[in-house]
Structure prediction request, 341 residues.
Amino acid sequence: MEKKITMTGQFLNDIFKDEADLFLIDQRKAEKEGLLEEDSGNKCKKVSIDGKSSRTMVSFMEEVYNKFLFPSFFGRNWSAFVDSYKETLWEDEDNFERYLLVFKNADELLLDASEEDVSALLESLEDIVEALADPESIMPMKIIFCQNGSTTSRVGKSILKEGRNSKQI
Amino acid sequence: MFKGKNKQSSMHGDGVFEVGNTERSVSQFVDNRPEAIAQRKLQEVANNSPQVSQLRALQAMANKAMKSSNTPIQRVKPGSKPEAQALTTGTVKKVKNVGDRHGGKHGGRELKQQLIAAGESADSVNALTFKEYDVNGYNGTGRDAERIVEASDGRIFYTGQHYAVGSFEEIT
Prediction:
């Protein structure tokens, strides 16, 4: 158990030292590193969203609405997502020094959504990461997409195709 | 028996019954009992006291402030010219003083969709960048679904439905 924590700590340190914002990782490795479990130890908040519950844009919006306790006026569109998510992150900045968003089962993430929605998700995440990379920010954010096996998820393919600031582990 | 509230009987202080408007009749009733006279004098003194005068002044100020802050944003469809431009400009200025809250590199996605659907050139719309502001909540009150979005071409839009496509209206 202690070994696992140490490994995860080192793994996290490496991720936060890396210049990439988005990481594509084998889900088994992520599990081994304890990335799939939500926790908030060592001043690092780790939150996970399940791709299985987010196959469409509508179900994704519902998932994040419930996960992040967005306000009732949440508009369930991409601008509203960026707006509301930033708000929760600014609150987290009071308590954490690092923030890790993990998409588990990323193979199914937005699998039934349009290509525009996949791009919109990545652009929205990019805006959010950039906002937290602001010099005034004290809580950098990294995003991990966990894929099953050696296949590249649909989101993963878009990340690579669109040349986003990413790294495969 | 009379029907209707204006046809009821009441009695004057002199003991004479009058038939007519109840409100008017009540206002004419004079209570000459010593206790009532003393009470009226006390009330008069209280009404003229500095404390009550101060409260009246404060209430007047509060009413004025409420009227000012409740001034609605003038919303118009894109292309039209509202007459109450000064009010809108003032409100937008207040909101913008707090700074761009949510405009990222990719902000304005839903507004772009709406503008293109309305017939604007996709190339010119996609070249725009946006800054986004809370309409309410900028002064410490609770946030809600109202936002102002400022496009890089100078146009300013209002949405009351948290960026929903179709909800944006241009303001000036």
In short: The two ends of chain B are 62 Å apart (CA to CA).
